[in-house]
Structures are given as structure tokens and as C-alpha cells.
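Hi X.,

You mentioned you wanted examples for the new student's onboarding notes, showing what a folding record looks like when two proteins sit in one file. Here is a clean example. The first protein comes first, with its sequence line followed by its C-alpha cells.
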Amino acid sequence: MTDTALAAPLECPLRKVEPQWVDLNGHMNMAYYHLVFDESLDVAFSALGIGWDYTQKGEGSCFTAEVHVCYLDEVKEGDPLRVTYQLLDADEKRIHVFGHMYHAEKGYLAATSEQMCIHVDMKARRASPFPDATQKKIAALAKAHEGLARPAQAGRVIGIKRK
């Protein structure tokens, strides 16, 4: 894994809000936040050896088991987006990751995405341990990210607070 892949947090390529992503409210539709986070996570997966090249072999892949997105501020057509990811936790079959989406020029936090991803044996279509080489890369990434602050939105639960 390269030094860039061990960045804390992991920086993903810049994106911009595409015209077709804008809804009737004049801002990026909620579905496209998921798209940007998902495609940005591919950068982390590639760094860990479980990206496109790995999945094309037909032996294993990662599935998202759960995702929680918090929409914190608007982004509009043409706005540049900067996404970072950090590894919160991992075991032999799962990785718990957290993404931050920022307006790349103004710097404000627009959204966050917390995901639990599971490694799947594509022949058996069941959860299975990551390959040994990937487990070593995950451990190295965890070490690189251990000093990062836990995001305020991590572990949130949806509900209405009653007085």
C-alpha cells in the first residue's frame, strides 16, 4: 500500500455536482450524495486491494450492509466536492468506514456517510474473511487512522427525541 493510501484521512479525487444531480429544490438530490460517497469509497477499496481489479476476478467483493448519511449543508450545480474516508474499525470480515464530503472551495462540511461493509465470497455468496494481504493492509490503515478524532456523526441513531 502506498503512502497516499495510508493518508489520514484518505483523500479521494475531487468531484463536482453534475447538472443532472440537481433536484427541484435547486441543490444536489439526496441520491447523488450516496453515489459520490460510493464511488469515492472505491478509492479506499482499491488501496486495500479489494477494488475493481479484485472484484473482476469473481472470487470476492465488498457489499455495504448498512449506511447512514447525514445531510448537513447544501451543494449546488457545479460545486466542487472533496471526500475523505477514515477507517473506524475492522475485523476479519467487516470494515466500518466514515466519509466526510466538503465543499472543496468553501471548506464547509456538506454531508457525512457512515458505512459497514462486509467481505463476500462471490462463489458462495456468503460473508467471508478478507484475503490475508488485505487484512494486513486494513491493519496498516487502521494504525494510520487511529489518531483521527471520531466523527461527531458516527454511531448516530435515527429517532425523534421526546422531552
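Then the second protein repeats the pattern, sequence line and then C-alpha cells:
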Amino acid sequence: MIVWLNGTFGAGKTTAAQELLDLLPGSTLYDPELLGYGLRMMLPAKRLAEVDDFQDLPAWRRMVVDTAAALLTEVPGPLVTPMTLLRQEYRDEIFGSLAARRIPVRHFLLDAGETILRERIACREESAGDDEGAAQARRWSLDHLGPYAEALRWLKGDAHVVDTGLLTPRETAEQIAEAVRSGTGDCGIVQTPEPTAETLAAGVLLFDDEDRVLLVDPTYKPGWEFPGGIVEHGEPPTRAGIREVAEELGLQLPRTPRLLVLDWEAPDPPGFGGLRLLFDGGRLTDDQTRGLLLPGSELRDWRFVTEAEAERMLPPVRFHRLRWALRAREQGRPLLLEAGVPAGG
């Protein structure tokens, strides 16, 4: 298990984490910031200049998961992780990958009013004296108060909030420890195990009466997606698409969906690639649309979008697949793609 202590600078994550080690038997401090320092030492300056924060490095996000999994083979756990995580897409990627490793996460937000946060940041600088590094850390901390305020909307909906404004580090840790013991803060993300070879996946495109396509926003990975998922062993792909639509949206398709594209996705380590099928699930009626349900452990939102809107929302590999699927729908015939491009085209 990972006990993830989120919050901005000055919220008390580090001090609470140290106290928490005494309250959770077998716990170990796991600080992903150290991985960021390591990457700064190893990556070329040109690559580092391309990002504002080491969290923007895909390598860092991957290492957070891989290192956690490795540590949990050495220690009983839980891992106590004091780490600010303000971008929801990074939360989705990291927590989703941990779920795929069958590593549960308890997510806690340590929060305090802005006035208290500013006072704590100022006190930290005073205690550090005139050190230039301390001054830079203060500027960095203050610069993150704005992004933190913007992130509170999703953070408070995702994490168990602990108001640290009037609490000592020990009192904060005691509240977290009691919440962990009672099961509070469990993210409960549903995720299939990480693949060990090429996979076969089936997605279903659903449309409204304006021919806009339905996209869903998964909790376990960044970016929007089509309804669908991995085809289970021995399962027909069309049946997998029907099953996934029912599981994800509570919608029973009245007929077998029609194939639009079969796309070979190239391996992209750590992914193995494989075959990706997109089916036409037809137009939804107003009653069907009103009846759509979202499992909170998998999806947080759905939306009908135009092709132009989808281009802004989908990762390039998914958008190229969608674009050709829409052309196949217009032409009334399926298309064979290789890495998102018509074979032989």
C-alpha cells in the first residue's frame, strides 16, 4: 500500500510523514522527489531545458511506479509518500499504473488556508537565514500557491482532506493513521494488470443525433478515451465491446456493433502494442443518453464531441484511429490501419 500525502508547500507533508512512520507498523518513507534529483543529474541539459518541472518528465512518472513496486518487494509497507501532485493527468497516470501493479493507494490532501501557508513558508525562510537556496525554495513555494488553488477542485473530490491549519504534525499524523486503519482515502481504481505481451483491445464509438462521438475520461490514465477495453482470453472482440459499454456506461447495445477499423499499434516501451479494433455502436436516443451511468472507480466524465474537439482531447495515436474510423463510417466499409495509417496508404 502507498499512503500518498498530497498538498502544496507548507501544508505539513514532510513533518506529518515522519510522525506517521511511528504510527503505521512496517511503514517506510518513500520520497519520489529524490528520483527527480537523480534525473536532473543524469539527463542532458538540453532535455531538462524542455520542461519546467521534473514531474513533466515521463521517465519520472514511470520511475515513481517502478520504484514503489521494487521497494514493496523489500519492505512490508506501507510506503509513506509526501509528494505534491497537482496535475490531474499525472495523478491518473501514476495511480492508474500503481493499480495495474495491484498496489493500492490511500490519497490524503493536507490542506491549510493561504494565510497559514504563506506564514509557514516565510518562517521556513527565516529559519534558513540568508541562504540563496532557501530564497529560491521560498519563491518556488509561493509560485505554487496559485496552481494549488486551481487544483483544489479535483483534489478535494479525489482525496480525503485533512485540515492541518490548527494541527501539530503529530496530530495530523494521528488523523491520517486512523483514516488508514478505517479504510478512508482509498482510491479504489479498477485497472487490469499491466500487459506482458501484445494485447487485443475493442473500442465502441457511440454517436448523438448530431453525429458527435462520445468520449469518456478514465480515472486510471491521462487523456480521454473511447468506451472499450482489453479483449479477454477466448472472448470475441464484438462481445468484448458490448461488455465494456455495459460495464462503463450501463448501456446495453441492442445489436452487434459494426467494425470500422482494425489498427496495428506499434510497441512503444513500456507498452507492447497490439491490435486495436473500433466498432460503430450507432446513435443513442435521448433516453439512452439520459440513462448513461459512470462507475466512479473507472470513469469520471463523458462527453459528445466533434472531430475537431476530439483532436484537442485525445492523444495523437487515438485521434488518428478515430479520424479513420469516422471516414470508414462515412464510406460504409472497414479500414485496415498500421500504426494509425491505412495499410499501403
